[in-house]
C-alpha cells in the first residue's frame, strides 16, 4: 500500500507479489488470511472501499496456484513453475477486477483492464526478483516454523 506507482487507471503496488510469496511460504489458510486482510485493508485505507469484497475474493484466488505448488518447490521460492504461475494469477487479477468493475461501474470496466494488466505484469516481475533474492539469501532456511 505504501509503495504506489501511478499507472493507466489506478496504481501498481507490490501487494500481489507478496501474496504469491506468502502462499509459497505460509500455505493455506494463513496465506489466504494474509492476502484477504492485507490487500482488503489496503483498499479501505487507500479510499477504494467499494473494491473490498472483490479484492478479498481475487487475492485469495491468485494465491491458490502458489499454495498448490508449495509442496513441489524443494524450499525454493523461484522456480520455472512458480514464475509461470504468475500467468494464471495475473489473468485472475484482470478478469476478477473486470467483473468487479462491471458490477461497480460498467463504464469503467474496459478502461480498467490496462491498469490491471500492468499490475499483473509488475507483480510477476516483482515476485521473480524478490523470490530470487530471497533464495540467494536462503530466507526459507532461516524461517523457523
Structure notes:
The chain is 72% helix and 4% strand. By secondary structure, the protein is mostly helical. A hairpin with a 2-residue loop joins strand 1 and strand 2. The longest helix has 31 residues, at 106-136. The chain is elongated.
Shape: elongated
Oligomer: single chain
| Helix fraction by DSSP (H/I, runs of at least 4) | over 70%
* Helix/strand/pairing category: mainly alpha
Percentage of residues in DSSP E strands = under 5%
Q: What is the straight-line distance between the termini? A: 27 Å
Q: How many individual β-strands?
A: 2
Mean pLDDT: 92
Order of helices and strands: EEHHHHHHH
Keywords:
145 residues, single chain, 2 strands, mainly alpha, two-stranded antiparallel sheet
Give the arrangement of secondary structure elements:
Blueprint (H helix, E strand, L loop, with lengths): L4 E3 L2 E3 L2 H12 L3 H16 L6 H18 L10 H5 L1 H19 L1 H31 L2 H4 L3
Helix pairs in contact: 1-2, 1-3, 1-6, 2-3, 3-5, 5-6
Short description:
The chain has 145 residues and is mainly alpha-helical.
Amino acid at each position: 500500500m505504501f509503495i504506489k506507482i501511478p499507472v493507466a487507471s489506478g496504481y501498481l503496488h507490490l501487494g500481489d507479489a507478496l501474496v504469491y510469496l506468502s502462499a509459497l511460504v505460509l500455505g493455506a489458510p494463513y496465506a489466504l488470511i494474509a492476502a484477504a486482510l492485507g490487500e482488503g485493508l489496503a483498499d479501505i485505507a487507500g479510499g477504494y472501499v467499494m473494491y473490498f469484497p472483490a479484492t478479498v475474493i481475487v487475492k485469495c484466488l491468485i494465491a491458490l496456484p502458489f499454495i498448490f505448488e508449495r509442496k513441489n518447490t524443494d524450499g525454493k521460492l523461484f522456480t520455472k513453475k512458480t514464475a509461470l504461475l504468475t500467468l494464471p494469477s495475473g489473468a485472475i487479477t484482470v478478469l476478477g477486477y473486470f467483473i468487479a468493475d462491471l458490477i461497480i461501474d460498467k463504464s469503467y470496466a474496459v478502461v480498467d483492464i490496462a491498469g490491471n494488466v500492468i499490475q499483473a505484469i509488475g507483480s510477476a516481475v516483482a515476485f521473480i526478483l524478490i523470490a530470487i533474492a530471497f533464495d540467494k539469501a536462503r530466507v526459507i532456511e532461516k524461517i523457523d516454523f
